[in-house]
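Translate sequence into C-alpha cells.
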Amino acid sequence: MIPFAIIFLVVYLGANAFLAWRIFTALDMLPVWVRVVVVVAISAMALMLFASIGLRNVALPEALMRAMFNIGSVWLVFLLYSILAITLFDVVHWVVPSLRYGTLIAIVLTIFVMQLGYVHYRNPKVVEHSFSSEKISSPKRIVAISDVHLGYGTNRRALEQYVELINAQNPDMVLIVGDLIDNSVRPVEEQRMEEVLNRISAPDGLFMVVGNHEYISGIDAVERFIDKTDITLLRDSVARVGEIAIVGRDDKMRGERKPLSELAPRDAYVVVLDHQPSSIEESAQLGADLHISGHTHRGQVWPINWLTDAIFEQSHGHRKWQNSEVIVSSGLSLWGPPFRIGTDSELVVIVLQPE
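Result follows.
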C-alpha cells in the first residue's frame, strides 16, 4: 500500500508540475507576475482535496470544507483531461506545425467536456432487471443503490433528489449496497441528512451493508448515525422478509468476516449484498439467487473505466454466474469529482416474480 501511495504521489505531483509549466508557457502574452499567480493557484488546487480529507474531522466551517473538497476533486478530472488534450494537440501540432495555441485550446476543450460530464452525472439513469424464481410467490419490486457518498460532495439537496427518484419507483424494499457515507459523518450530521433518508418509502424495509468508506468515516460513528434512521444495518447478518433472505456481508476492509456458508439460509430466495465485488464466486458456488455489489463506480470517467474493467472480473452490469444472478452497480452518486464521462450514475430496479 505504501509503495503505491508513493508512486501515486510522484505521478500526481509530476502531472501538476507539467500542467503548470505548460500553462505558464502558453500565457507568455501576459505579465510574469500574472503567470506566477496562475501557477500558485494551480498548486493550491492540487492540494485542496487532500487537505479536505486530512482535515475531515476538524471543526472548520462547513462552507470552507465543502469548497476545498469540491475544488480539489474537480481539479483531479481537470488535470487528467487537460493533460490528455494537451498531448493530443501536441501530436496534431507535430503533423500540422501551423497550429497555434494548442495548450489553450486543450484547456477550453477540457472545460467543455467537464461541463457535459457534470450534467450527465446529475441525471442518473434507472436500470431495470427482472428475474423469476419458484421461490417467489408474489412479485416484489426492489430498488438497489450503492456509492451515494454523502458528505461535502453529495449534500442534502442532492440526497433529496435521490430520495425522490427512489420513491418514484414505488419500491417494496430498498437495498443500500455500501458507501452511503463518504469520508466523515460530520457533514452528514450537520446537514441532518437522517431526516431525508427517513423519507424513503419502502413497506418491506430499508436495508444496508457497509462499504470501505464507512470504515474510512469511522464505523462506530456511522452506526450511531444509522441508528437515527429507518435503515436496518446488516454486518455479517441476515434479515428475513417473507420468502426473501437479505444476507448482508461486512465489508472486505474489515479483514475477518464470516463465510457466506454460515450466513445464507437454504429455505429462502437469497439476496447477497457485498459492497466490493470480490466474493461473487463464493456466492455463485453457494447457489445464492442474487448477488449485488457496487464499489467500482466503473471508474467514473474514461479511460479509468478501462482500468476497473481490467481489475474486476465483473466491474459493472448484470451477468449470470452459474445459477446466480449478479449485478454490479456503477453507483447512484460518486466519490470526489462530480463527473460521469463514459460511465453512468444509476439506480437499479429489480423485479422479482414467480416462475
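Note: The chain has a mean pLDDT of 94.
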